[in-house]
Amino acid sequence: MQHLYLHIPFCHRRCSYCDFNTYANMEHRIEAYVEALCAELRMRAAQEHVPVPRSTEAAALPPTIFFGGGTPTMLSLGQFERILEAASALVPLEGAEITSEANPGTVLGRDYLRGLRSLGVNRLSMGVQSLHDPTLRVLGRIHTAAEARQSFEEAREAGFTNLNLDFIFGLPGQDLAQWEATLAAITTWGAEHFSLYSLILEEQTPLFAQVTAGNVVVPDDDAAAAMYEAAMMQFAAAGYQQYEISNWARSTPEDGRLPRYACNHNLAYWLNSDYLAVGAGAHGHLYPRRYANILGIDAYIKAVAQGTLPVATVTALTPEDLRAETMMMGLRLNQGVSQAHFMARCGLGLDEAYGPTIAHLIDLGVLESDAERIRLTARGRMVGNQVFAKFV
What we know:
The chain is of the alpha/beta class. The chain has helices spanning 30-46, 56-59, 77-87, 110-118, 133-139, 145-157, 176-186, 206-212, 221-237, 264-270, 297-305, 319-330, 339-346, 350-363, 378-382, 384-389; strands at residues 3-8, 10-11, 23-24, 64-69, 97-102, 123-129, 163-169, 193-198, 240-244, 247-250, 276-278, 283-286, 289-293, 311-316, 337-338, 367-369, 373-376. Helices cover 40% and strands 20% of the residues. Strand 7 (163-169), helix 7 and strand 8 (193-198) form a beta-alpha-beta unit. Belongs to the anaerobic coproporphyrinogen-III oxidase family. HemW subfamily. Pfam families: HemN_C, Radical_SAM. Residues 1-241 form the Radical SAM core domain. It is found in: Cytoplasm.
C-alpha cells in the first residue's frame, strides 16, 4: 500500500466549529487506543491488497503516512514510535512523506519536536487558524497567536524543513482589512506550505448555534470571496504557487507543474488513488469500495480486541462513481485532470465519458482545456462546487 491515514481522535478541548470525530477529556484512553490502532494495522497488513490502475502522476508520488485528528501531538513519542513500527508493514518508511498534524497549544517544546523528527516525521501541519486572539477564543482554540509563532519557531529549531500552516477565513467578526493584515504577517514566516479554508458552519456545532441565535456574526459569501481573492494575490506576490483550491506551496522554477512542497498525501486524494485509513471513524478507499470505521473510541477498541476489523460501513463504487470522483477530486488541482490520468484510472477518455458536459462548462467560462488536460478557470475556482456537481 502506498498511502496510509491514521486517525488520532483526542483533543484537550473541542473547537466550536469542529464536527470531526474527536473527543475531549479522554486522555485516559489514549494508551488503549494506541494498542488497538497498532492491532488494526497488523490486521490490515495481513490482508492481500490488489493493485489498482494508477496514472503516471499518481505512481510518481512517494509513499505517505498522515497522522490526523484530533490532535496527534497528544501522543507520547513512544506511542508515535510504536504506531510507525506497526505502519511500516504496510507503507515503507524509507523515503516516505510522514506528516503529523499539530495543535500549537499542545506541541510540547523543542525536545518533543526533535524526538518527533528523529522518529521519521518529516512534515508538520500546524492548525493556527487565526492570529486574532479574541477570535481564537471564540473558536475554542487553546493557543494564542504568540504561542502559534513560538511553536513554529521551535519546529524550525527542531529540524523541520517542511511546515504547513492552516488558517480559516470568513471567521466571526473578521473583515477584509483584518484578513489582509493576517496574510501580510504569515507570508513573512517562511512556511513551505499554507492551507486556507473558508469557514463552514456545520450543524450540531456550538458555533452554528451561536450564529443561528444571532449571538455571533460571520462575513457573508461576498466578503468571504473577497478574502479568498486577497489570499490568491498576496500569496502569489510572496512567491507561493496555488496548486489546489485551498492550498499554496513555496515554488521554484525547476519544480514543474507542482511545487516542491505540495502535500503528497493530499495529492493522493486529489488523484483519486487508493489509500488505507485506520482508527476510529477513519475513511478508506480501496476501489471498488470505500469503508468507514466505527466512530466511538471504546467501541473501536472493543471491536479490535475481538480480532475483527472495526469497519462500520462499506460502500460499493461503480465505474460511474470512479469517473465522477476522479473529476471532482482532480479538478480541485490547478493543473486539472489530464487525459492520460483519466484514461489510466477510469479506462476511457475524457471526451467519451463527459464530452458534452465539458463543452458546456467551457462555454460557460468555468473550464478551459488544451490537448493534455482540462482545468478550472479563475472564475471556475470561485464556483468550484457547482462545477463539480455537473459530473455527478
